[in-house]
Write a structure and sequence with these properties.
Layout lengths: L1 H8 L2 E4 L2 H10 L5 E4 L3 E3 L5 E3 L9 H14 L7
Parallel strand pairs: 1-2
Antiparallel strand pairs: 2-3, 3-4
C-alpha cells in the first residue's frame, strides 16, 4: 500500500491549513505540491489555486428562491 501511495502522491503533501502550506512551501523553496484539507493547492511553482466552496446560501438560485418566498409571505404580514 505504501508504494501505491508514493506513486499516486509523488511529491504532493497534504497539510491542514494554507498558512502551514505556505511555510512548508517557502522552506522547501517551492519544490513540492502542497494541498490543504480545504482543497487549496500550492504548486511547485508557488501558484496558489482552489479551495473549498463555502455553502453560505448566497448563490443566484438561492437568492431567487429567498426573494420568491419573501414575496409570498409579505402580503400575509400586517404593518398595523
Amino acid at each position: 500500500m505504501t508504494a501505491i501511495k508514493r506513486y499516486l502522491l509523488g511529491t504532493t503533501a497534504i497539510v491542514d491549513t494554507l498558512d502551514h502550506a505556505m511555510a512548508i512551501s517557502r522552506s522547501r523553496r517551492f519544490r513540492c505540491k502542497l494541498v490543504t484539507i480545504d482543497g487549496e493547492t500550492i504548486a511547485a511553482s508557488g501558484a496558489i489555486t482552489g479551495g473549498a466552496t463555502r455553502h453560505d446560501d448566497n448563490g443566484l438560485l438561492q437568492q431567487q428562491q429567498s426573494a420568491e418566498k419573501l414575496q409570498l409571505t409579505l402580503p400575509r404580514c400586517s404593518l398595523n
